[in-house]
Design goal:
Blueprint (H helix, E strand, L loop, with lengths): L2 H23 L2 H26 L5 H25 L2 H23 L11
Helix pairs in contact: 1-2, 1-4, 2-3, 3-4
InterPro entries: TMEM14, TMEM14_sf
Protein name: Protein FATTY ACID EXPORT 5
Family: Belongs to the TMEM14 family.
């Protein structure tokens, strides 16, 4: 599976979570964190998709995806440990941990698999 197939929905989920946190609680920290991380993930996913369309790997996009997921895992994991609230900290930390593992696997396996060109 290609990284952008999961990164783009993951980015939308993080972005939507930040916007919902702002709308429901008035939390500007949720808006800034969610919108910032979500926008970075969407940008990285789009760059990875465009690179794949050109039959290339974007290691910069993969690195950015990994760093965002690891940062979200750490920050939201810390928040979950402090508050013990499943929503949103536990969910975001768990999802981000899974995505971090996926991205690290993609790095270890050499990035996106580019199928041979059919002629």
């Amino acid at each position: 599976m290609h990284d952008f197939c999961f990164t783009i929905p993951y980015g939308f989920a993080v972005l939507a979570g930040g916007v919902l946190g702002y709308l429901r609680r008035g939390s500007t920290a949720s808006l800034a964190g969610g919108a910032g991380a979500g926008a970075l993930l969407l940008l990285a996913g789009f760059v990875s998709l465009k690179a794949f369309e050109k039959r290339r790997n974007s290691y910069v996009a993969l690195a950015l995806e990994t760093l965002c997921a690891l940062a979200l895992t750490f920050v939201m994991g810390q928040r979950f440990l402090e508050t013990s609230k499943i929503m949103p900290a536990g969910v975001v930390a768990g999802l981000s941990a899974v995505m971090s593992a996926f991205y690290l696997f993609k790095i270890a396996s050499g990035g996106n698999h580019i199928p041979p060109k059919k002629e």
